[in-house]
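Schema walkthrough. Field components (list of strings):
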Amino acid sequence: MSSPSATQDSYPYQNEPIWSRSEKIVARAAFDAALKRELQEVMQEAKQMANQINEPADLWDLEHYLTHSRKEIDRKYEYKYSQLTQVFGRLLHEQRLSEEELHGLREDKLNSIRSFARFLSEDAA
Amino acid sequence: MSSPSATQDSYPYQNEPIWSRSEKIVARAAFDAALKRELQEVMQEAKQMANQINEPADLWDLEHYLTHSRKEIDRKYEYKYSQLTQVFGRLLHEQRLSEEELHGLREDKLNSIRSFARFLSEDAA
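Field assembly_structure (string):
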């Protein structure tokens, strides 16, 4: 029971894709670009909401929007290689990322990413 | 033990000041005016902060400012007659209310209000 092969069989990460050095560079750039765009969008929206504040309730709407956005961004942008196909799949589904930005990833990863994006689209329909 | 006089002796509000109808009108107007001014101030500040947003950290500073302001306002503006002398004392101390706006309250209430304002000023010093 304590032989190395028995342990190896249950090694939890054995089915995880390996990210090559060049893939990691592509992934990081795509991730950072999507995050930057989403943050820019929130900054733009917050400025617009603030400009239109006329009554106290508008203040708390803005507060709620900011809290919600922060939590959403925290949840969505998790840079872990074990999570990246789902992260990119979601960003693709939300049209926050284009497939061109993922150019350079291996085909099996792209397939997983597309497949998760498709799942989310079908789930939302 | 169940005689009415025994119950009356322990009546919890016996030392509370009574607010006359005309005093309630003065109190309500002063309270509403101070609250309105403070909300206007927060709206002004939020607009200014939003205008100056340049990076994501500025977004979360604005969120924090709004959450803090909402909680402060909730805490401070409690319209209960049992709390009003402290509420007005605090607003006087914070210079959010002038003594003129309390004109029409009985002298004993004004003294309590001034006394609590003085306590807060000394406490802050």
